[in-house]
Predict the structure of Dipeptidase.
Amino acid sequence: MGVSSYDPGVERCTALAIGKDATASGAVMISHGNDCPTCDFRVAYVPSMSHPPNTFLPIWPDFDDYPRFITSSSLDPTFSKPTSVSFAEIYSTTIGTPSTQLKPLGYIPQIPSTFSYIDGAYGIQNSQQLSFGESTCDAALGMRSKPRGFEDGKALFGIAALSRIALQRCDNARCAVELMGGLAEEEGFYGGNINSWINGDMEPDKMGFAEGGEALTIADKHEVWIFEICPDDTGEGAVWVAQRVPDSEVCVVTNTFQIGKIDLKDEDFFMASQNVYDVAIREKLWDPEGDVAFDFAQIYRAPMGHQLPNTSKTSKRVGATMRDRRRWVVYNTVAPSLKFDGFREDTWDDSDTYLPFSVKPDHKLTQEEVFRIHRDFYQGTPFDITKSAVGGPFGDPYRGTALPDESPFNDSEEWNGTFERSVAQLWTSYTTITESRAWLPDWVGARVWYGPHSAVTNAFVPIYPGAAKSSNRFPKAFEVGSLLSFDEESYWWNVCLVSNYAARFFSFTLEMIQDAQQKVEGHLLRMTSEAEQRALELGETEEGFKFLENMQQDVADYAMSEWKAFFKRMVSSFHDGILFKRGDDGSCAIEKKMAYPAWWLNFLGPKNAGLSKYNTAEKEMGVSMEEAAGNGAHGFSADMFIFSVAAVSMIVGLVAGRKLPSGGRNSYKAIPL
């Protein structure tokens, strides 16, 4: 057992679905935080295509790790090429990607014509305003299927392939649900554990169950649905269910099945595979003669939930931390009047016990408010991840691996558990927030707000499927970049610079970041509103398409320029342990020294803080400082180390007598000095 952190392959995404009557603009909105440090962050435009009769569509294996797609056609001009690093280098160094070109798992008949769409790690939005978000889920039958071509695998489709096919072929959410569900039932579905099958490291208590299922948020111009799917008991088909989110409500999916009790007679709100009951009966997951109502989430979730490695003894609490706490903070943010309790841990026992499938927000949500949800790290709550000792003296929001595999504390019951898992992550690949706007023609109404890297430190920029109609390309800043080599022409890399530098002094830099976000995003909202009006005046003509494309380039240029300048401004203000400012006469002045806060020093104690008068262990004891400490080079003894981490959960209540901020339920309060 041991304290667990976030295995990038295990806890992926947070996805929101927002009905048209729950948004201030009237748009149907969905969002997707693709929380994955090894994933391909680039977006690409896939144009509409025509196909002759009797042709077939190749079905590629799902890979979202960088680079997500390697075939002989990867050099096609519509494919987003990496820069600075050769494909040969990528083949040999990319984690989770085969060292040779990908081969199709199989083929299905092609259709005469397809829609254009924006592609990422999954399909994002097409030219008809159909949109997707994604959240990997645990599944009781997650180990039953393998992709075709891998050992005895028989399943053809992963969720990314299904989403792309739906975007090519559908213009509404119901079509997408029925198409994806039907294909998966007929040809088989495998979960997000494909990399583990290929790498040979599949273990049931790690990736197998935890990544065996999937959920998609699906929006069109009028409706928004949740689609959940997992392998069936044969490994050759699929079990799936879909539920419509009421137009006036918000739903959030957090890495586990969300849909509970279903009523398939209510066709306006529910759809499911034909085998949804039969598989549960065959696998003895549900007894139709019993007194327990059919509950899809309770039946098809994994026995231990979407757990992290080494946490089996506290699976219920881990489930609450991993899943329900995020659901709680989203619902508490949009509907505080409902007064949900973030400490409740009984939602695992019944999908409808406490946190509902969806809630009606206290007021209609703006784009900026949805941005802020994806920037939530539990600020203003007892679970704030920046307020623990693990975050250091200045509130670093990053949570890495707490204990290495060889740590002597891995068998300690006191260490069995996990850090809080917030919506915002410092290692997010990208976040998308889509808008489907029925009152606008599709070529203008389809809009995606794209935020590379962490939402905490990025600025969301609008991308339009219609803006690439002339050139079949998006601005270079969104299409290029390699995880293996810094590229100043990549928007992702410029945000990455800000993220990694700002985290070191987070309690100081956050306010500056938020000011920059409000400036850039506010400007882009005004800019796009004016540009859309002009595009509509020009109409759906070559001139109109070109205008939208030029506006898209202006957006990219502005965002890149602002974030490059912001990084320089931030470094100029915060460096060398000092917050600098310019004096009235132009001279350099010190506004504040970034000294260690008193609560941090009190927590360490004078000896463990490394005061020089205590650094006499080697002389007095005849041993090195590291040996005297017993574990680590910072003066901690093993006992002190255990005590310190055990005390992390008490920091919020005990450190310096601090109380929750009074500036709002999600307001930020800097760590006092």
About this structure: Residues 3-381+408-418 form one domain. The chain has three domains: 3-381+408-418, 431-580, 595-657. Confidence is low (pLDDT under 50) at residues 1-10, 71-100, 306-314, 628-673.
